[in-house]
Design brief:
mainly alpha, Rossmann fold, 2 domains, two-stranded parallel ribbon, 10 helices, 5 strands
Length: 357
């Protein structure tokens, strides 16, 4: 520690010298042009020779001065880094010193006990010194831990700021990409609207859902979610039933807004994952009124959230309630839609759908 303390004094002295030299060179750079422009050879007041001619022979060019200044500034940076490392090392050795002092006090206390030379007063004094040394060491250790934690927090703040800046830049780039394609904007607006209509709740802020436009992304033109920390495919950021709702919204929005869509949509078992009956009705209502052909293959008794609740109730209360859940939900919905003059047909198939087709 003493050796490094001496090095610290030496480095500080070198830094003072280099700083003075840098200032001197700054002064020379500012005054060099003035000195070389003098025509006087003696002082106009005391008439003593000025020695300008000799000084002129030793004047350095501006380029030489700048190179010399740069070398000194580089040396100064190096020495400042060395000084910081030395000071940190000395601070750590201060902590080690406290630790070794504690060990010495422990050894002294043990020797006194072994030698039987201590009095009660001496034993108490030694015990107090040992306790004080132990506490001082713990305080120094905790102080070092506290310092390191503060440094890490400051580093994390810088990382967080850089992360937020990059995130905002990415969002600006993405927004610019979306603005360049009106068809994507139109589709995104329809998609978000239908997500809301179909009861999608996995994202409270629906504007976090957007369509990926990056042509290098594996999710290009598919729905993704900006969760703040990163961008996730909508399947990863949604519940199972909400992902079904997202599929409805995506394919039906594409059906009505896609500029190169063939004009019909086929879906197999659209009411998976026990979605709510009301949301299923809303989807069928939209499909029957979109002026496009939609073909849906649905189980006769669709397993909705309400169906599962009713079935659970039956298991508890008895089989007399079974009639309430054994209904053809799809047929009921189609009949209600046709009452609204919709062009909807239902074709019940007992075996495989493809065989009937």
């Amino acid at each position: 520690m003493q050796s490094e303390s001496r090095k610290i004094k030496s480095v500080r002295k070198q830094l003072e010298t280099i700083s003075k030299e840098i200032k001197d060179i700054d002064y020379q750079l500012k005054t060099n042009n003035i000195v070389t422009g003098f025509d006087l050879t003696e002082c106009p007041t005391c008439h003593q020779p000025l020695g300008i001619g000799q000084a002129m022979n030793n004047v350095f060019s501006a380029k030489e001065l700048e190179q010399s200044q740069k070398a000194r500034k580089d040396q100064k940076k190096f020495l400042e880094a060395v000084l910081a490392r030395l000071e940190e090392s000395v601070a750590k050795k201060e902590m080690y010193k406290l630790y070794f002092e504690k060990l010495v006090k422990e050894a002294e206390y043990e020797l006194k006990l072994v030698g039987g030379q201590e009095t009660d007063v001496e034993a108490r004094v030694v015990g107090n010194v040992y306790q004080l040394s132990s506490l001082s060491n713990k305080k120094a250790q905790l102080g070092e831990v506290n310092r390191q934690i503060k440094e890490i927090i400051e580093e994390l703040k810088l990382i967080k700021k850089e992360f937020d800046d990059n995130k905002n830049k990415i969002k600006e780039l993405r927004d610019n990409d979306v603005k360049t394609d009106n068809s994507v904007i139109t589709f995104l607006s329809q998609f978000r609207k239908e997500l809301d209509n179909f009861g999608y709740t996995s994202q409270t802020d629906i504007t976090q859902v957007f369509i990926e436009t990056d042509d290098k992304s594996s999710q290009q033109l598919f729905p993704v979610v900006d969760e703040g920390r990163n961008i996730e495919p909508i399947i990863s950021a949604s519940s199972a039933s909400d992902f079904i709702r997202a599929l409805w919204a995506y394919y039906l929005s594409l059906l009505v807004k896609g500029t190169r869509h063939p004009g019909f949509l086929i879906m197999d078992e659209p009411a998976q994952q026990a979605v709510k009956e009301e949301d299923f009705k809303t989807m069928l209502d939209f499909a029957s009124n979109c002026q496009r052909q939609v073909i849906l293959f649905c189980s006769t008794h669709t397993i909705t959230e309400e169906y599962l609740l009713a079935k659970q109730k039956v298991e508890v209360e008895g089989k007399e309630q079974i009639v309430q859940i054994e209904k053809n939900l799809v047929k009921d919905i189609v009949e209600s839609l046709n009452l609204q003059n919709r062009n909807v047909f239902i074709n019940e198939i007992k075996f495989k759908s493809l065989e009937k087709l």
